[in-house]
Amino acid sequence: MSTERVVGVGAGAAGFDPAYERGGTGAGSELATSDMVLNIGPQHPATHGVLRLRLTLDGERIVGCEPIIGYMHRGAEKLFEVRDYRQIIVLANRHDWLSAFSNELGVVHAVERMMGLEVPVRAVWLRTLLAELNRVLNHLMFLGSYPLELGAITPVFYAFRERETIQAVMEELSGGRMHYMFNRVGGLKEDLPYGWLGRAAAASAAVRSRLPDIEELILGNEIFRARTVGVGKLAPELVAQYGVSGPIARASGVDADLRRDEPYLAYGELQDVLRVVTRPEGDCFARFSVLLDQVKVSLDLVDACLDKLSTLPAGPVNVRLPKILKVPEGQTYAWTESPLGINGYYLVSRGDKTPWRLKLRSASFNNISALPALLPGTMIPDMIAILGSMFFVVGDIDK
C-alpha cells in the first residue's frame, strides 16, 4: 500500500509522516502513486505573513487546497465590546494595516448613522480625499510586492518611492504613518495645516507623472506576462459564490463598486470623475492591471477633492459631542468600498457607551476563501502567482 507524504515548508515543517496512508493513482498512468501534502507556511515568503496553505499534490499539480487561518487572530470583535466608541477606532484601523483610514471610516459611519449625526461638509470632502490617498498607498504596496514574489526586485523600489511621496503628506496631516487615527465620530480630528492642500496636490502630480515608469517596467516585461497571463482565472460565478469583492472581482468582469452603486461621503458628487475599472479575463494579469488603473482613478478623485476643498470656506471639521458618548439602542449595518474590497460593520447597541456587538466583514477573508476552488488543477509555481494576485492582508483575514 502506498503512503501519503506530508511535507512542510517554512516554520513548523512536519517532514514525512507515514501515518497518513492512502492509495492513489496518478492521472494518465497505471502506476500506483501517492498524493503528497505540502504545507506552505504558516511563515513563508510567499504568504504575505502568517497564512498557512495545506496543498494536496499529484506530482507538481495541485489537486486540493485548504487555507488554514487564525495565526494572527486578536479577537478584535470582542475587544470592541469593552471599549467606548472613541477607543474602538484605534482597534478598527489595524486589521488591514495598509488601509487604516478606510477601516476607521466604516466604524464612524455606523456610529454616526445610529446617532443621526450630520458631518460638516468640509469633513465629508476631507474624508473622501484621505480615503483615496489611502487607496493609492494600499495599491502601490501590492504593485511593488507582487512582482517581487515573481522574482522581480526593481518594481518595489519604484512603488515605495511613490508611497513615500504620499506618506509624507498623510503623516504631516495626521501624525501617523500607518495607523492615522484621524477619524472621529462626527468628523475628523482637526483641520488641515497651512499650505497642506498645495503640498498634497504636488504629491499627487508627482506620483501621476511617475506611474508610467512602473507600468512600462512591469506590464511590458515578457517574463511577468508569461507568469500571469491566463493564470489563475477566477470566474464571475465563483466571485458571487464566495463574496469576492474589490479589484479581484472587477478583474473578473464584475462591475460593482459601492462608491458608485451606493454613494457615501462625497462620491455622489464625483460620479463624473469616478470610473469603475473592469477586465473580462479574470487572470493574474487582469487583477494586477486593474490595480494599476485604479491608482490613476484615485488620483483623479484626489485632484477633484483638492479642487473642491480649495473653494470651500473655512468651517468646522467635526461636531461637538458629549464627554460620555452613548449610542441609542438599535442596530445598523454600514459598508464601504475599502481598497481590498467591501468592508462591512454590523453594530448593535443597547444604549451604552460601548457596543453590545460589532461584527466586522473584512474583504480579505472572502477573497482568500476562493482559493480552494481556484487552485486545483494549477502547478505549484502558478500557486505563488495566484496567491499574490488575490491582494489580501493576513490581519484582515484573522481580525
UniProtKB/TrEMBL annotation:
Belongs to the complex I 49 kDa subunit family. The keyword tRNA-binding does not apply. Residues 150-324, 325-399 form the NADH-quinone oxidoreductase subunit D domain. Its EC number is 7.1.1.-. It comes from Kribbella speibonae. It is a peripheral membrane protein. One of its GO terms (cellular component) is plasma membrane. Its main location: membrane. It catalyses: a quinone + NADH + 5 H(+)(in) = a quinol + NAD(+) + 4 H(+)(out). NDH-1 is composed of 14 different subunits. Subunits NuoB, C, D, E, F, and G constitute the peripheral sector of the complex. Keywords: Cell membrane, Membrane, NAD, Quinone, Translocase, Transmembrane, Transmembrane helix, Transport. NDH-1 shuttles electrons from NADH, via FMN and iron-sulfur (Fe-S) centers, to quinones in the respiratory chain. The immediate electron acceptor for the enzyme in this species is believed to be a menaquinone. Couples the redox reaction to proton translocation (for every two electrons transferred, four hydrogen ions are translocated across the cytoplasmic membrane), and thus conserves the redox energy in a proton gradient. It is found in: Cell membrane. InterPro entries: NADH_Q_OxRdtase_suD, NADH_UbQ_OxRdtase_49kDa_CS, NDH1_su_D/H, NiFe-Hase_large. The chain crosses the membrane at residues 373-394. One of its GO terms (molecular function) is NAD binding. This is NADH-quinone oxidoreductase subunit D.
